[in-house]
Specification:
Layout (H helix, E strand, L loop, with lengths): L4 H5 L2 E5 L6 H14 L3 E5 L3 H7 L6 E6 L8 H13 L4 E5 L2 H5 L3 H16 L4 E5 L7 H14 L3 E3 L11 H11 L4 E5 L5 H10 L3 E4 L2 H6 L2
Parallel strand pairs: 1-2, 1-8, 2-3, 3-4, 4-5, 5-6, 6-7, 7-8
Helix pairs in contact: 4-6, 6-7, 7-8
Length: 221
Amino acid sequence: MELTREQLAKYLDHTNLQPNATQEDIQKTCMEAIKYNTASVCVNAHWIAYVKKELENTTVNPIAVVGFPLGATSTNAKTFEAKTALLDGAEEIDMVINIGELIGGNDEFVQNDIHSVVQEVHSKNKLLKVIIETSFLDNSQIIKACELAEKAGADYVKTSTGFSSAGAKVEDVALMRKTVGNRLGVKASGGIHSRKEALAMIAAGASRLGVSATVKILSEN
């Protein structure tokens, strides 16, 4: 697949989720995103109001993560976190599922957990991505997570937080795309460090990429 730098940039959620990120670090992330005109800047919810202001009068969207990175907070906490981030200016929310409940076979809980956040996000006409953390899952569980996210009304399924044992894999992205068809977006995130890796994820079916190596990727030929 051949994409210009400008085209590739619009696949990228330029990400800084480090717990020790300072305001100066977040500002640098925003300036890089504006320079390359990425799809978004993805940060922890604390920084959303600041990022919203930094990205004013640009086409770069602010994104907040919710229930991050473990997914084991309560449904009420996730929903409130999403509500607060939206009030602070988030245009998209990336939430982590309750991974243990998925693996334990509690499908109803997982679907309801997602749906509660979906309702909050969609009430503001914004997008919800659901992080399923593929490194913990086998293929049948990846399929199940995608199916539950779709039933709950999510807009995207996403591979990873980037804080687990492994990030996105081409074969997982392909499986997720096969499962959701063209009905949902697929976001590959974690461990994407080069243009070649980014293009491989897109070829496998990713419609968005979460990356912190944005400058490196977009500087390569």
